[in-house]
């Protein structure tokens, strides 16, 4: 291909010097190309005309070359079963830029280099990068985040991360499948992590609210007198939403009906096509951070598409389809055309929407949420009350569920103390200066401030803060109470009360959620596959360490999360209850590469799909598998001719037929 393009370029390098006849002769070689004609009035030997002509030729040559290059890149994606979202990975763009700078003849990294040399280099670079984070841990403190989970192969994984205002840092993951996760063992793991980070730097340890983690957290607080164990706020709010579905019959039946609609449609490609004609391409599934938030957000999406769904199930396309006559089809049609179902969706959302707003707050990486969760939960309760028109019998069951979880699990001294010193709320007429808030504040002071003189000083400084004395009363301080982040506000105006300033900044810089651990699940699951169990434990940890921290670093550089980092939707809203027989005629075979040298691609399809948008650094994350696809890789870098398979080569047959997932 490259020789052909060079030959073409050589033919196009015509002489635009003295003789216009030569131009005509040159044109006749490549066909009539009007853009090569010299403009009227151009003299013999015009350098301007020559430059313009050569520029046009180069442009056309590069255009053709780009098409060939993009075609080869696409072929590399196809033959390696790489998800299309990876093209949006900024590391992919950087890779191509460096390849272009090198020019023709780049020798790609070897299997060993990408597995050993460059992986170790990335680990060392990240270690250097993390030194800045560790300095901030000493200055404002940090939160250790830990979460246990079980992957699709029933392996038990435990992640450990550290969060501070500068960002979240991944430390390591453990495969705990062979470890009994008793309270003693969980305590041992958490205590070791505190020792690694430094007890003097740790303000809180966040885990989920499982019984063993809760008991281990209590033991940790008994041993480590200057830190708190805090349950994950996102997990607790998700449990509230789960309780709505469990204990309120209307929520249970409505969510079940909504799930029946989505699973019925998304199990059948023909219905997906019909649906998108009515919804103008929009889908019904709305992903969220947690399972039960997904349930309610999908109900909201159904409600937004109410008209489209009712039109679809009343349309000729539906009535003439074979699905309208089967039992499940009739049931779904009845649900969609039932006005009571849509009224019930609104009722469910009136209860869940305020909590989902809090969930987004605590799960966001944009700002530390510790100073806001106390007020946010109070506002959510009041909003729910208003949504039900202050009718007690309507909102009281919702309140009871929220209060039970809030008081027993979520409400912690740190939440109250951060609320008290948050200038966003402290000077508001609606500020709740009650017993529960003060009790939380004093408990935090007792735990963090052991020196009696310092504690007495802070008590006096607290009065200055409450009454806006000194720098707290400056016009700029008043104007910025709600414009600046709470920690930045204290940094700017708290110098007159240095002891209180340090205390306030440390607790206002805290996160409330360990959801950063959950975002790392896919990275660990990707590495721990049967296909990769030849990697030593140390190397697997290094690979996850690099992938996760590169992702966190790239995320900080972007003002918003790119689409390749989007979350997956909950599978149960797509695949639950699929009846294969209904769709048998429409199941399509997946695209398969007709090349025996790439037969292993089929076995990698599931693994590569599971990576999805979470691939972080293409050369590292995919290197071990990608370099086994050496023919397309070398063709892409070196412009080598493509080895086309002979017509006698056949793709291996698949034992099972797979459904095409919704796009």
Automatic annotation (TrEMBL):
<feature type="domain" description="DUF659">
    <location>
        <begin position="109"/>
        <end position="261"/>
    </location>
</feature>
<dbReference type="Pfam" id="PF04937">
    <property type="entry name" value="DUF659"/>
</dbReference>
<feature type="region of interest" description="Disordered">
    <location>
        <begin position="644"/>
        <end position="663"/>
    </location>
</feature>
<dbReference type="InterPro" id="IPR007021">
    <property type="entry name" value="DUF659"/>
</dbReference>
<dbReference type="Pfam" id="PF05699">
    <property type="entry name" value="Dimer_Tnp_hAT"/>
</dbReference>
<dbReference type="GO" id="GO:0046983">
    <property type="term" value="F:protein dimerization activity"/>
</dbReference>
<feature type="compositionally biased region" description="Basic and acidic residues">
    <location>
        <begin position="651"/>
        <end position="663"/>
    </location>
</feature>
<dbReference type="InterPro" id="IPR012337">
    <property type="entry name" value="RNaseH-like_sf"/>
</dbReference>
<dbReference type="InterPro" id="IPR008906">
    <property type="entry name" value="HATC_C_dom"/>
</dbReference>
<feature type="domain" description="HAT C-terminal dimerisation">
    <location>
        <begin position="481"/>
        <end position="550"/>
    </location>
</feature>
<protein>
    <submittedName>
        <fullName>Zf-BED domain-containing protein/DUF659 domain-containing protein/Dimer_Tnp_hAT domain-containing protein</fullName>
    </submittedName>
</protein>
